[in-house]
Request: fold
Amino acid sequence: MKKTRQLSIAVRLILACMLLLSFSLPLTRQSAQASATSPTTQTTLIKPQTPQPAALIQAGNWSDNFDSYATDSSMHGQGGWKGWQNNPAGTAYTSDDHAISTPNSVSISAASDLVHEYAGFTEGEWIYTAWQFIPTDFAGESYFILLNQYDDAGSTLNWSVQVDFNGTLNQVVNTGTSGGTLPLIKDAWVELRVEIDLTHDTCAFFYDGQQLYAGTWTAEVSGSGISNIAAVDLFANNASPIFYDDISLTPPPIPYYLPIILR
Ligand SMILES: [Ca+2]
Reply:
């Protein structure tokens, strides 16, 4: 009896050990897997994904500081830039005469009619920024233009923004239906900022922080435009050189007061 009871206890102990082992094995395997995973991968797995509006994913950010190009080089065929209607005669040249980010800006002068097309900017809010330097001896009228439709063939063109930097009047002049003028600032880098809301069809132009005008995106200049940022056109109109640098097309900055989870 005693041997049988001892045997029974031994069997129970073995069964209990096997049971414990069966529970501990998966844990041991998981631990081994966890220790085999690199810390970087683990961080990636647990990192919360920040939700982004569709427009941001579709269009993204764009900017150009002209610093990666050779100084005094033609921008036609570089960085997506080209002369109007893809004509090299409309090109402009990088320059280190003036720059807000060194070494280069782009000099818009004489026959310069420099275009950069964009794709996918069809909804939401966007900020178009360009820094501009107009020398003291500036002569002529040079234009900053944004189009909602553009093609090289010239078959579908529609202007949304056309601002005249007028050396004769010494004024910045909105040529669109909203009108508006501001004194021309020379011999200093000045921010041009265009606040575009494609969803609500609004557009406001700021010169050195001052609002030049507020109007619509689709009807301010040509009329019957569409919800689309198609191209920028830096048009010298045979004026003397002015300089652009640090041009960008980005979403509006995220309000600082929003909780981090919503940014
Ligand atoms: Ca630069």
About this structure: Confidence is low (pLDDT under 50) at residues 15-58. The domain at 54-250 is CATH 2.60.120.200 (Jelly Rolls). The helical segments are 2-36, 39-46, 54-59.
